[in-house]
Amino acid sequence: MRLKIILAWALLCCLGACSFKSEDQFRQRLVPNGTSSDLKIDPNEDSDGDGIFNKDEVSRGTDPFVADVPVLETRFIQNFKIDVNYNHVNDNKVQSFVIQSKIKDTDSSFKYRVGKMFGVEKALNLSAKEGRFSGHSYGEIRNEDFSWVKYPSLDPLAFHSDVIKFRPVFDREKIENVSINLVFDSSVKLVGTRFKEIKDLSLSFYYHDFEKDTYVLLKNVLINRIFQRGVNETFAVVIENVPLSFLKETYLKHGEFLVSEVENYFIPELDRDYKTLIAGVRAKTIPVMLSTPTEEKVFYVTVGKGISFIEVLSRIFSENFAVENNALKRVGQYENNLGTHEHLIDIKDKDKRGNWFVLTNKFKEHFLDHRYTPEDHITLAYITGNVLASQPNSEQTFYGASVLSVPNNETVALLGKISPNSKVEIAIKGLNRFGHEPISTVFNENRTVGGGCHNCSSVSYSCKWIGNKLSAFSRNFDLNINFNEEWSNIFLVINEEKFKLSQLITEKKAIVRNLDFSFLITIEDVSKIKPLKESENNHLSLALYSTQSKTHQGIKLISQEGSSDLNWCSGGGGAGSLSTVALANSEYGGEISTGSLDFQVLLAMIENCRRYPTNTGAASYLFLKLKDDLDYDQNFSLAINSKITNYYN
After folding, report:
1. How much is the pLDDT for 452?
2. With CB atoms 3.0 to 4.6 Å apart as the test, which of 68, 100, 344, 534 could cross-link to 81 if both were Cys?
3. If phi over 0 gives left and psi between -120 and 50 gives alpha, with beta otherwise, what is residue 326?
4. Nearby residues of 511 by Cβ (< 8 Å), 6 or more positions away
5. Is the fold of 66-115+151-270 the same as that of 394-436+472-549+633-647?
């Protein structure tokens, strides 16, 4: 595209004394790389609305067509605390708990200052959604996108642990008089070289109300101190009486914290406040946000009656950019080198290579042909492959306060839909073991019969039995890092195909971390477990299986020694002696295991007693019950919280 360059300058005599030696040099200073637009300069006007006359901008070496606005880096300090007080309905006793970030400043993952500009996050996402192949996309950008800073995603391990620990308070218990207070630190730094200081800083803090899909103001904070250039100022913020929806929905369901906004401040050098300044700037300029791996910055460029995209770049970057084949190819040190790809997952490992993406508001023309006005916006983002492939398209969460395994069947928790480019987080915590177990008792009989006279012989024998009674049990338990028996009964299910969770961890296809006996299983790439094609029918589930153990019921003779001429162990030992029959009738309701050593003997004796029920002792056999081995079910329950992030692909 060829630009028709028109230059019209109206110079006052007072400018003749400036350091530029010719009108050509003056033109070169005001319009870098020799290009211009129909912008006209009046030395006594303020073309960019920043409160400084054009002649003063030229004399001090600044551009009258790029507004000078103080740049504040506002960030959160990573650690925070949430204090919660409440009482149960019909109980005035105050209950409380505290949620706080777990990362210490001695941890290698600790970051003193965290936060990302709203507009940057939106640009990254829209680039992945719309412009991943073209290099340009349309999207709505609001003024607050250039000033709001969002606390980044919470640490997944701490977040899932908090959900499992504290969400039952609100989901399962009847509570009232809930009081929530937030305590955290914030940081502000005045950067750049133009302004020396600001003061009387006003910050606003918001949270995302997901039910109403709006941002709700929590508190406006006035910081009565002077912020000098280049100095990080940190201050504590306490927000009381926070709505319950913040904790239940924003934090414990969606894993989000707060948003901060620079509301206002006073600029001594201009003798005006920020609101007044930015209102004047926005009336005459277009905001241009630059995002690279090393910086985030907003420029305000004068547009006059309208200027082109090339002219905007020329104003900001002079000649240090390149546009080729209707696409932005280079700005500064960053140039397109990502290469071709069919799907974003193909570039997920590219952390050093990237492309430029341009985001603008919607209009009819090609973005290079459009004439930009203060109603427009431009975002220039250099995005590496790994960042582009990690932009969320959708998120699905699952929460089960108590998911139970069931006997002789599987319990399936449907976690959600997945894609070839998905990240999965599953947090599990052991709650309860329950089911049935045998209560075992050992009986022994060692006896000598006869031998009471001179010529009488004696008979010695010994018997051993184990008796089992069916008993229900229920007890708390914790999963442990040694992968106890419950781990072998937990399966990941991808489209009906089952994968043992402990084996995936052993094979490093899933990564496990633990905190307070909660385990977070993270799967960065589902395709390493099972290759998938794009489909609406890809589903991920978690399946639990109970354990079945078979053992006998009632009394069981397991050994006998001595004379076998008589059925001493079965029932022929005489009055007062232990026997299978006696133990069955006295201790186990007549139940005898079919696996007892004397089963055939007893079976014959029972049949005989049924034929001759009036025989002496027959009654004791008629009430016997021969029992096959039983399945004893061993079940367990887990608390489960999961999050599936499906990225654009």
Report:
1. 57
2. 100
3. left
4. 505, 521, 522, 523, 524
5. yes
The four Cα atoms 590, 591, 593, 594 give a dihedral, to 10 degrees, of 80
Tokens coding 348: 């997920």
Name the amino acid, one letter, at 407.
P
Topology of domain 66-115+151-270, per CATH? Jelly Rolls (2.60.120)
Confidence of residue 226 (pLDDT cuts 50, 70, 90): very high
Q: What is the mean pLDDT of residues 524-546?
A: 91
Q: Are the CB atoms for 410 and 321 separated by under 8 Å? A: no
| Bridge partners, 360 (sequence order) | 138, 378
CB 497 within 8 A of CB 530: yes
Helix (H) / strand (E) containing 168: helix 156-171
- 394-436+472-549+633-647 architecture in CATH? Sandwich (2.60)
- DSSP structural state of residue 145: G
Q: Rounded distance, CA 562 to CA 580, Å?
A: 16
Task: Express each pLDDT in 124-151 by its tens digit.
Answer: 888 888 767 788 888 888 888 888 888 8
Helices of type H across 62-155: 118-129
E strand map for 272-375? 272-273, 285-292, 295-302, 321-324, 327-331, 334-335, 354-360
Cβ-based neighbour number of residue 341 at 10 Å? 16
What's the whole-model pTM score? 0.82
Please list, in sequence order, all residues whose beta carbon lies within 8 angstroms of the beta carbon of residue 181, skipping any fewer than 6 positions away. Answer: 82, 83, 238, 239, 240, 241, 242
